[in-house]
Specification:
The protein is an alpha/beta fold. The protein folds into three domains: 3-84, Winged helix-like DNA-binding domain superfamily/Winged helix DNA-binding domain (Arc Repressor Mutant, subunit A, Orthogonal Bundle); 93-188 and 309-326, 3-Layer(aba) Sandwich (Rossmann fold); 192-306, 3-Layer(aba) Sandwich (Rossmann fold), CATH 3.40.50. The protein is 41% helix and 19% strand.
Amino acid sequence: MDKKSLFSEIKALSMINSFSKHEQLVQGIINGLNHKMIARGDILPSVNEMMRETGFAKETIGKAYKELIKRGILESKNRRGYFVATDNTEQHLKVCLLMYAFDTFQETFYQHFRNHLGEHIQVDVYFHHNNFSVFESIINNNKGQYGLYVIAPMESKEAIDLLEELPKDKLLIVDRYVKLKGDYSYIVQEFKKASYNAFEALAPQIKKFSEFVFFFKPSSAEPEEVLVAFKKFIKAYNINGKIKNHYESGSIEAGKVYFTIHNLELWEILKDAKVKGLQVGKDLGILSHNDDNVKEIIFDGITTFSIDFAEMGRLAAEFVLSLTPVAVVMENKLIRRNSL
């Protein structure tokens, strides 16, 4: 790294009257990258060294370094200083996106989120798989390293305490609603009423079968509200309902309706139906949560109820671009197809 040239570049910007000292430092480092005075992987001068060479206050230097971290141009490493993270000086922001897992509907969310942001915003994707240890590690390792955090949260008290440590004006909660202190932005879905409404609309079709089977895994990422809605529905409509922890391969039977949230379970059910020669929508019914393109096509279509994950991705991207506070509970829609 050519420190002497970098300091000269920063000082030269003082001649531009419209630049504050903070802006001089930010633009000087960007110019240093563009002119190859510094490069990716280089460690920048310490705050004390920068104070000595430029005469800027400690707070000014810290503010400039933090802005460059938010843009993803610099990264801070504990006790080791500030490093150049990228040569892309056109980058405006670095976003931490923390999701449950990369299922097909979450991929739809990501694709529309990423595409709507444009090329000058960096998005780093992490997955917690509803595992608190993973969730905790990701949050703690990335606090202060990003300009914005877009997070599909866990619902435990410990997870909420971690979210409380992030600045609310730089946080967007997506998918699941959690109650945090103060004002914060969210784009989420509602499960209890939406699930009940879907079951109720499908009641005439469900009653044609002898049993309504719901596969629900306790202590999992599956929303408890869906289970509450299922129990309320089968009682209100006098439906013969059953709750099982998981689908057992080969156990499918004619005359029943099967409802699962998990796609892997859905694929196993459909495979067994094909093996046993059972016609989906006639010999048995199938209902799924969270729609995607595959469910529109396979077995002449699987009936689902779902929010529009593409729209959720677009709305999340709009928040990132505008930083306009948002509080949206998205509408679930029943999508009737041939499976029920």
